[in-house]
Amino acid sequence: MARGVEGKMRLGLGVMLSAVLAAGLAGFCQGGVTSSFVRKAEKTADMPIDSDVFAVPPGYNAPQQVHITQGNHEGSAMIISWVTEDEPGSSDVLYGTHKDKLNNSATGKHTRYSFFNYTSGYIHHCTLRRLKHDTTYYYAVGIDHTVRTFWFTTPPKVGLDVPYTFGLIGDLGQSYDSNITLSHYESNPKAQAVLFVGDLSYADNYPNHDNARWDTWGRFVERSAAYQPWIWTAGNHEIDFAPEIGEIQPFKPFRHRYHVPYKASGSTAPFWYSIKHGSAYIIVLASYSAYGMKLRRLLFQRNIATDDELQLNLLSFTGKYTPQYKWLEEELPKVDRSETPWLIVLMHSPWYNSYNYHYMEGETMRVMYEPWLVQHKVDAVFAGHVHAYERSHRISNIAYNIVNGKCQPVEDESAPVYITIGDGGNLEGLATNMTEPQPSYSAFREASFGHAIFEIKNRTHAYYAWHRNQDGYSRVADSMWFHNRCWRSPNENQC
Ligand SMILES: [Fe+2]
């Protein structure tokens, strides 16, 4: 009898213990949703070089690879970039608000570079200034030879309740899947500008970083990037550091081809900078920059540092006393949320990532900068690098001070939502392997290619939606309403 009671008690304790453990696991170990959507496994391959999406436009010295990006801090300038192959031709742009009356002109400059056995075409950059906000402009490039005309709409004037929709694309590449992502994005009629989180062409996956693949990529994305600004973030595939073929100047192709208005925000390099765009303040950070290129080249040339040490520095040296650190420290207090209520940060390497790819690569930068992002109530951080999709809860991990043992991410209402959107579809394929169980900070994850939009409605609300490539654009695979971190109601700014 006594044995029976003891047995029941043991059973009871066991059930209780299991329940407590299960509750604990649910509370601390298990996260949100790992999507059950199973993507058909297919090989991700680059489109052949003679694909129609890479076609060279007809005509002598025809401008190609046309793309635009914001040209100053406020959004009243636009940088127009293109390449001519036969001769420099003119770097002038004719533009105006009527298609048949391009009665304004601006003069740009051209540059070119060589990379191992490749020499680029003539790369033109021309900034159109003093543009009216929220206005459609037509512009012509290729003056004197083959002229091509495009158009864009400038962002609205910076303001509190200005609606605006951004597209989000990362790690695009030039595979068949990349083409589906871009087409899918284009079929989404809302987005007005692309926030691109790095890794453009993947030319460095070819022998000698075949820079002809930078050209094909430029022609591929022209169908969108010539008509709406793409805001550039540099990824690891932009580094193009190849000492084995004598190429030791990091970011050479990217720097020549993709200009950004970094000086307008007081930055000293094009890899970290900020812009105001409608009701958003966008801060672009550099996961792979630390100190000046000249110093790095000097170290290498004088044999003070080996290739490996340089690579290591390139990847890990994001610390204090660097130009980026100093810039960000001064930049964040400048953001006036009563002017631009939405504060968005872009970077390539994610800080919160529960896939078994690039695990913790963003950790050095997170340790340095996360407290600032929480302090300044950043609304969202978008990153790429991991070729899949993931969205976090609002969490932070900033309490740790070496001796207190507080090293877990915790819920934090002042913290941003972290979104990994490196699912553009490049030739390296999908990241499918995830850490298990799903960590508590991870709200939703799925290994599919796609794009997202961030639709700002007013100072308090923005609608975010992720679209996987397999569905029609109108179908949303993951979404959330963003409530602004500062404006909790139209009359209450908590920043
Ligand atoms: Fe990457």
From TrEMBL:
Its EC number is 3.1.3.2. Residues 63-154 form the Purple acid phosphatase N-terminal domain. It is an enzyme of class 3 (hydrolase). The keyword Lyase does not apply. GO terms for molecular function: acid phosphatase activity; metal ion binding. Residues 415-478 form the Purple acid phosphatase C-terminal domain. Residues 165-389 form the Calcineurin-like phosphoesterase domain. InterPro entries: Calcineurin-like_PHP, Metallo-depent_PP-like, MPP_PAP, PAPs-like, PAPs_C, PAPs_N, Purple_acid_Pase-like_N. Gene3D superfamilies: 3.60.21.10, Purple acid phosphatase-like, N-terminal. Keywords: Glycoprotein, Hydrolase, Iron, Metal-binding, Signal, Zinc. It catalyses: a phosphate monoester + H2O = an alcohol + phosphate. Belongs to the metallophosphoesterase superfamily. Purple acid phosphatase family. This is Purple acid phosphatase.
